[in-house]
Amino acid sequence: MTDNLNDFFSDNAQWVDSSDDTSFNSAMPPQPPKSRRDMRRRREQKRRRLYITIIAALVVVILIGVGGFSGVRALKRWKAANEANSQSQIEDYTGPGDKEVTFTVESGQGAAEIAENLVKAKIVKSAAAFTSAVSGAAATLYPGSYALKTHMKASDVVKILSDQSQAGGFAEIRAGERVSDIIANAAQASGIDVSEFQAIIDGGGSGILPEEAGGKFEGWLEPGAYNAQNKSAEDIIKSMVDARIAKLDDLGVPTGSERERILIIASIAESEVGSDKYYGQVARVILNRIDSDMALGMDTTVAYGLGISASRLTDDQLNDDSNPYNTRIHKGLTPTPISNPGDDAIKASINPPEGKWMYFVTTNLQTGETKFVETEDEFWKIRDEYKNNNENAN
């Protein structure tokens, strides 16, 4: 009887909400059923509620499953349609092309602009095909004139435009190059005899050079690529000078004699070390030596005055005082820049770092590591380090 009563109360226990009776602030104890018939009725209701809950849960699971399956199928259909649509938009020729044409990439043009011009020339079928091919190949496109064909496959065009050896008709200036190298390149790119360029260089630059250049072109030709097709030697040289002046203005280089002075310092710095991280320190050494009334003693300046590389200098040449660029003998800066320096060397020369360095040596020719010191004793130590490294390298 006790077990039956426990089951009875366990199965039928319930709590009464205290909010339904304002006379009590706490819940009432469980109320037993009035009869066994009532107990059976409650058990039956409980079972029905359980069955209904289980069935409802199963229905929800089934609906979710059906909905998810339908959703996946819909997503797949949308993806396939989207891909098909994308493919239809990226139209491309199958190649290899038919009619030969010359196509020019101008300096500063990006892939999108080049793509539009290729479509206009009927070389590629769509801009999207070309830009996708450029992106997929992570290609760098070079300025120049290229031999292409109409109706080419976009990826084949990218291979050609990213091969600098196939570029023609453009004269390229690299930072640190001398005028003699630049006009030789310009002559080859334009088909104009180098003597015509040399005549302009020797002519004083009237109407081309600014007054502070003193009639000398060295240092005043801006690095970059220049279209040399169907242009005169004067037009090509003038475009290089105009670009240099514009760049110096952009960099905030003072005008007048100070501009020429900065170009000289920058040209020496770029010629002396092979890394832009040292340009500023070399510029500071130059200024410190001038302030101390010391000769600059730079072999690269001596070599420039002779039209050779520093590695070919002899002792007699290093002691030749007839060379105005011999900074071992003549104090102060050189008469002109000794190359056409790039942006990094110019910026470093405008505002070189503070320091008391008086000497520097590239101690490791393979890595380009350069050390800067203040005293002569320290100089001989790093000089010995250079010799030891050089001997080990050989």
Q: H/E element string?
A: HHEHHEHEHHEHHHHHHEEH
Which percent band covers the strand fraction? 5-15%
Multimeric status of the protein = single chain
Name the structural class: mainly alpha
Number of strands: 6
**How many domains?**
4
Q: Which strand order do you get reading across the main beta sheet?
A: 1-2
Helix content: 40-55%
User: Can you summarize the main beta sheet?
Assistant: 2 strands, antiparallel
Look at the structure and give the mean pLDDT: 86
Features of the shown structure:
two-stranded antiparallel ribbon, single chain, 394 residues, mainly alpha, 4 domains, disordered N terminus, two-stranded antiparallel sheet, Dna Ligase, domain 1, elongated
Describe the structure.
The chain has 394 residues and is mainly alpha-helical. It has four domains: 62 residues, no CATH class; 67 residues, Dna Ligase, domain 1, CATH 3.30.1490.480; 82 residues, no CATH class; 90 residues, no CATH class. The protein has 14 helices and six strands. The strands form three sheets. Strands 1-2 form a two-stranded antiparallel ribbon. A two-stranded antiparallel ribbon has the order 3-4. A two-stranded antiparallel sheet has the order 5-6. Strand 5 and strand 6 form a beta hairpin. Helix 9 crosses helix 13 and helix 10 crosses helix 13. It is elongated and about 130 Å long. The termini are far apart. 26% of the residues are buried.
